[in-house]
Amino acid sequence: MNRTTLLALIFIFSVNLFAQNNQPRSPLDPTSWGVVYDVPATKNVKVKTDVPYSGKLTIDIYSPPSAKAGDKFPAVIFLNAIGDAPDHKLKTWEIYKSFPRLMAAHGMVGISMETDMTRIQECLRELFDFLERDGAKHGIDGTRLGVYAASANVTQSTIYLMSEKASKNIKAAVFFYGGAPSPETKIRKDLPVLFILAEGDLAGLGQSSTNLWQRVTEARAPWTLLFAADMPHAFDGLTDNDESRRIIQQAIAFWKSNLEPVPQPAEKPSEARAVVAAMFSNNPNKAAEALAQWVSKNPKDAEAHLQYGFVLFQLRRFDEASAVYEKALALGAKGAGVYLGLGQIRLGQKRYEEALNYLTKATELGRQNSFVYGQLAFAQMSLNRNEDAIKTYEKAFEVGIPPGANTRGLAYYNMACLYVRLKQNDKAFEMLGKTVDEGFVDRPTFETDTDLAPIRSDSRFQQILGRLSKTTN
């Protein structure tokens, strides 16, 4: 049994105990405490209790103080997904009375509900059917609904909300200190969710909570994960401090931002801004399409041609990229960027002499980082200018090649090849050792690269291969 379910059962046990003994709730009964955040308007909230939504099952409706006949407000439903016992109802707990009232004080309708514990999923569907069908009679906009689910309620709530049967009018969900969806539950891409993980629940939730972010990113889902540091389970009703209140404020803001119209800027949408957004999308195909349309409409925009040329280079459309960069030069583009771009294109086209000239120009104009030096060194290496290439690689190391197999590791490997060409075998083996240290351990490359052929009979080469075996196993 997970911790959230256990706490819910403790709640139910405590309520049953006091009900059976016909005693008022003890201050130590967790259900006697309401939300720790309040605003003056909560005193003027309008409340309708025991409104039937399915047979004998009812809801309590908390409406804004300003509500009048004919008004329709977005609503936040405080889900009951564990059910009610015969002698007590979840909506009588203070947290399920005060939190909906707080939502009404913020200009939305708050709703708490009864549920038949023998048919929870059916009750949830019936509730949303009711709100969509009859919500307007009670001042509710049935097309703008949010939900709150906390503790053990999150499990069944998630099953409903992530299913195809969930109401499409639910526009936002906030999960307070509940368990992550089961691995079998597919995370929807069209429902914004704020998932609040309390630090006090980490031990009970185990690996599922730490894996959740990976699942969300793989699903490309619009979730916000909030880690409530130093907060216990049920902190919104039990932790009476400002940090707890700040988290509640964030939850309210999340509902409002998804259920209320977003203020629109006064200026008209900008096509140029949309193109720049496409450039930052990390999707070269999308960026290329946007830039192609832009340069066709703005043929004299040199900067656009530079950006378009770079994207075409990323797509390895070298001939097109070259033509676009040359157009940028003809339009008066200046600076190291245009020469770096052309240099990279020429490398891709294996036109190494031209690449060397362009990359040299880029360094002269200030692009003196390890990447440019590495590109320049490779051009020199490809032209068999081995001593020059070694010196350029040394410059790259001086300015700081980042660690890694395909950065420092590859640079060391190329230097080893250069030293073999220069018949400086001791230096070559020194570089190969550093190559492996950095994680460049592609054994077939070591065994088939013609540059290394002259040293393969050396016993030191077998030692290098031995290290590769250990590294790759």
Structure overview:
The protein is of the alpha/beta class. Among the domains are: 3-259, Rossmann fold (3-Layer(aba) Sandwich); 272-334, Tetratricopeptide repeat domain (Serine Threonine Protein Phosphatase 5, Tetratricopeptide repeat), CATH 1.25.40.10. Helices cover 52% and strands 12% of the residues. The chain has 20 helices and eight strands. Strands 1-2-4-3-5-6-7-8 form an eight-stranded mixed sheet, sandwiched between helices. Helix 4 (153-161) links the parallel strand 5 (140-150) and strand 6 (170-176).
In short:
By secondary structure, this protein is an alpha/beta fold. The protein contains 20 helices and 8 strands.
Could you name the key traits of this structure?
Rossmann fold, 473 residues, eight-stranded mixed beta sheet, disordered N terminus
Weakly predicted, low-confidence segments: 1-21
Strand content: 5-15%
CATH class of the domain at 3-259: Alpha Beta
What would you say the CATH architecture of the domain at 3-259 is?
3-Layer(aba) Sandwich
Count the helices. How many? Answer: 20
- Terminal-residue CA separation: 40 Å
- Averaged pLDDT, please? 92
As an assembly, this protein is single chain
Overall structural class, as computed from helix and strand content, comes to: alpha/beta
What is the string of SSEs from the N terminus onward? Answer: HEEEHEHEHEEHHEHHHHHHHHHHHHHH
Output the CATH topology of the domain at 3-259. Rossmann fold
Q: Measured on Cα atoms, how large is the radius of gyration?
A: 32 Å
